[in-house]
Amino acid sequence: MEKEVQIKHIRDYVFTLFQADESGHDYFHMERVARISRKIAEVEQANVFLCEAAAWLHDVGDKKLFHNPNEAIEEMNTFLCDISLNKIQINEINHIISGISFSKGIAVPDTLEGRIVQDADRLDAIGAIGIARTFAFGGANQQLMYHPNSKSTSIQHFYDKLLTLKDLMHTESAREMAKERHQYMESFLKQFFQEW
Ligand code: ADP
Ligand code: NI
To answer: Which segments of the protein form a coiled coil according to its record (predicted)?
Structure first.
């Protein structure tokens, strides 16, 4: 099966898994992470197919999103086998997606492809989209947008995580893309507190 066709099948598979998500991990998050990963992979001369495939699938088996993460991963592997990915490719995809989530730890992925998908996932957590996802997450989790005396608010999440991400990018391409998104968040926060 051609790689292009395999990616199309992966996209359809991801659509069935994430179409109903309202926690900030919807299908379009996967689409953006896949597109950014592809773009960075081309510039960084990484394995573009692996980056794109792993990016589409990067939230499969996330403990926050799946009642049975191991089963989700097993089903994904069966699916990848069905669309003719070989054992090595399937192992590489598993390796990438098990190592990228911010919430799963801060270890730096040990392959270029893993670092690229992590950069792309982090880019989608900052900038205008990042701001929107943060308040969508807050709403879905009964969290206040802001409270002057509380540390568990969506605004606090900017200081705990989002403003740190630009310095955690691994690739030059991602660092470059992060600059504008970071500045946008800073001006958002400035305006937010002015209005508050
Ligand atoms: P990952 O996709 O790496 O697992 P998360 O699940 O932690 O990342 O985050 C998914 C989205 O939800 C991101 O946009 C993130 O900023 C947002 N988010 C995560 N935790 C919080 C929180 N406590 N408050 C507001 N937004 C959050
Ligand atoms: Ni993600």
So the answer is: none
